[in-house]
Amino acid sequence: MIDISLHIKNIRKSKGFSQQDIADKIGINRVQYTRIETGKSEPTLNMLQRIALALEVDLINLIEDNQAIEVDSSVKSLSEKIKLISELDQEQQRSIFTFIDTAIANKRLKNTLSNALNGM
């Protein structure tokens, strides 16, 4: 099992960022960020996404160990993924749906802006 707080700290140091740099990028104070790195505060999925963005890594790279994680390659179709999501607890489902809703909203906004700019 990976210690996410230690992994976040190691990535931050390897990229040459200070705790203050990351705290500023994710919109929290340094003390709050230090609590995440020391394991005294467990970050939400949303916070992990913000930290990954600030550290310039994919979320999966932030939460996975350096060892390869085997992904069940048989889970390919959307319907299979939906079935697996339905087996998660409500909080995990809400996090996934919030992420999907945000991605869709961003895509729609980009399309709207692109269409508006092309119409000028």
UniProtKB/TrEMBL annotation:
Superkingdom: Bacteria
Gene3D superfamilies: lambda repressor-like DNA-binding domains
Keyword Repeat: no
Span of domain HTH cro/C1-type: 8-62
InterPro entries assigned: Cro/C1-type_HTH, Lambda_DNA-bd_dom_sf
UniProt keyword Acetylation, yes or no: no
UniProt-listed Pfam families: HTH_3
GO molecular function: DNA binding
Transmembrane segments: none
Keyword set, alphabetical order: DNA-binding
PANTHER family referenced in this protein's UniProt entry, alphabetically: TRACRIPTIONAL REGULATORY PROTEIN-RELATED-RELATED (PTHR46558), TRANSCRIPTIONAL REGULATOR (PTHR46558:SF3)
Name this protein carries in UniProt: XRE family transcriptional regulator
Organism for this UniProt entry: Apibacter muscae
